[in-house]
Amino acid sequence: MSALEERVKSLRRGASALSMTDDDTRKKALLAMADAILARRDEIGKANAADIEKAEKDGTSSSLLHRLKFTDDKIASAVKGLRELSQLPDPVGKVREMRELDPGFVLKKVAFPIGVIAMIFEARPDALVQIAGLALRSANAVVLKGGREAENSNRTLISIIREATEDIVKADWILGIESHADVDTLLTLEKDIDLVIPRGSNRFVRYVMDHTHIPVIGHSDGICSVYVDASADIDMAVRIAVDSKTQYPAACNAAETFLVHRDIAPAFLPKLGEAFRQCGVKIHGDEEARKSIPDAVPATEDDFHTEYLSLECAVKVVQSIDEAIEHIAEHGSHHTDSIVASSDEAKDLFFRSVDSADVFANCSTRFADGFRFGLGAEVGISTSKIHARGPVGLEGLMTTKWLLSGNGEIVADYSGADGKSFHHKELM
Amino acid sequence: MSALEERVKSLRRGASALSMTDDDTRKKALLAMADAILARRDEIGKANAADIEKAEKDGTSSSLLHRLKFTDDKIASAVKGLRELSQLPDPVGKVREMRELDPGFVLKKVAFPIGVIAMIFEARPDALVQIAGLALRSANAVVLKGGREAENSNRTLISIIREATEDIVKADWILGIESHADVDTLLTLEKDIDLVIPRGSNRFVRYVMDHTHIPVIGHSDGICSVYVDASADIDMAVRIAVDSKTQYPAACNAAETFLVHRDIAPAFLPKLGEAFRQCGVKIHGDEEARKSIPDAVPATEDDFHTEYLSLECAVKVVQSIDEAIEHIAEHGSHHTDSIVASSDEAKDLFFRSVDSADVFANCSTRFADGFRFGLGAEVGISTSKIHARGPVGLEGLMTTKWLLSGNGEIVADYSGADGKSFHHKELM
Q: How far is B169 from chain A (nearest CA, A)?
């Protein structure tokens, strides 16, 4: 057994102990974690400075450097996040169904922590703090693999978190790993890891999905579309298109493709072209679209399969809402798609027939987010159809148990022609 | 592209069409399916007779022959099941969460069919009818692979079901496959199959889990335990033990292991031994247990990892409830475990700390079943912690979509220091 395997086995036992802790204990641990991070922020700053120095030497991009930097503001906000998490209602033990099978014979479905979760995420020390907090709140043990560039920050944060919490929860619940070889080993430990949540580049998430039999939730691509229906309010459609594309182009919920009904194209497209020109968005247009936006470059089939993640997009004129829906089914990534329409019929059809995690009407695709959805916090966005779909909050870190409490009931008494029958009375 | 791949692609389009059908259409199709099976029962009988003849020639076991035989009674009961299914509330579109993000900006989480589900199951024609019915009720397309011994019956049933329903739902939604090679191909089609539900032998289910990246729900092992606490009512404990072991020994929810607190062992074990002797149950006992049941054979460590599925079991005396809980964590398969106890404290501890799909108190493990739980019908029992755990009914065949309906909202308006904030008002 490798060293990593042994440490994960210890985490499995820790998960079991953690699942038994009460709400107050986990709240106390979250607050202790917050206090320790504040108290030891100099130490964290030093480790972070070492990461930044190395990243600068390596010529790391400014956007990555920006995410890597764990400034005092970010530390304060991470600490605030932990304190807010401690105030959220305890997800453990929440009753989801309750039914009396027969008088006094009561079945409950209750929420229970999943166990050991592996989270793989980008080089953002604040993400580490948030993920560790979510795991502790939901009583799950966690293996953390943060971006390589944040190695020193991660190591320091994990040891601070462990020292602040282990005496309170009395469980080995948090483990950091650093090498790619360890990730590969991790992906084989299906007996002791219950769920993998990978974030980061599309290629990396796809790699994880292809190399493990452990359940994975997450998303590789975010090819989101905005469809502008013939019934759309044109000014609204322009505002939504601009927000969906430019408010944060690197986000997975930014729009990449704009589909425009032919009846509204001549009126809408010139305005879209003008708005995008002002924001510096490059347009790849199909032949019909380029009639109204002459400076657009010709779109290839590939453009409609591309997640630009930058100020670039593809525009296509469609003959009908059905063509738009088909286009999304063929080219989209089942993440987030929005219709702009004033017709209720069109909105209804779009809601019913687009098979994506998030289907929106008359608002920006950028609203696809756990915080905006009111989930408290977000572990990631899942395009899987299993377990959790769309923004995943604390609930996505829970499984359930069926608890059945009887008074000596046996199945033989409920069998055969003369057997008793169940009354299945819903109690909630 | 192989022929199978093309047929599955067609099913993917069919799933999309099926997801758009309304409740009445699917009800009508279920009733047409029921009528067609009744009307064409001679044809079904002939195909089934051919399967039986071949199975008898091959020296198939009588229990398999019994399951294979699609008698008039079984046909009538399958048809009744379909009619009952048509009366269940439509799972599609059921609102699970509803929240206003800001005035007039409403988010809903609604149930939606998963898409294309592959079901692999034992040689039971009645199971085929039930599974096809569940798929149709939940608007999912389905690939069916039944036991090889039922090949003729399956082929006939699938063509009858297809002919009776396709004109009504206007969708290619049901496909039968027969060869192991096709199963292997199927397991690679992760783009077009959303979920695999395998039933059957442990070895086969394990094979499926190890050979696909498609999500799988199901269970390979069913090592269920009954723990008899020091506080147990002895007569109740004997009745529960007998029912859990003997009411249907071949079922996955039958008990294999009995753990007995040392304080009650001298009073309980002789009675258990006597009851098991009368039912013909062979006992593998640990040293302590054999002091009270002299005719038990010595238990090896392997016995506590064995799913006998027959009139055989393992018995162990434990020093404490904690030892019982640890034993179950180490040896059980997280399926169903039951405690017999009159102490509320003991029951509570057992409920909180046993991490199994079904945790019972003072009743037989045999109650772990979708029908008995009041789920209407059962696709299978899952020991996975993801998506669905324990008996899986119609709800396990559903995913969700987030539908967000606005009036031109953009994220830019909710950003920055002066940005609007969400009011996140729960509407249900």
A: 15
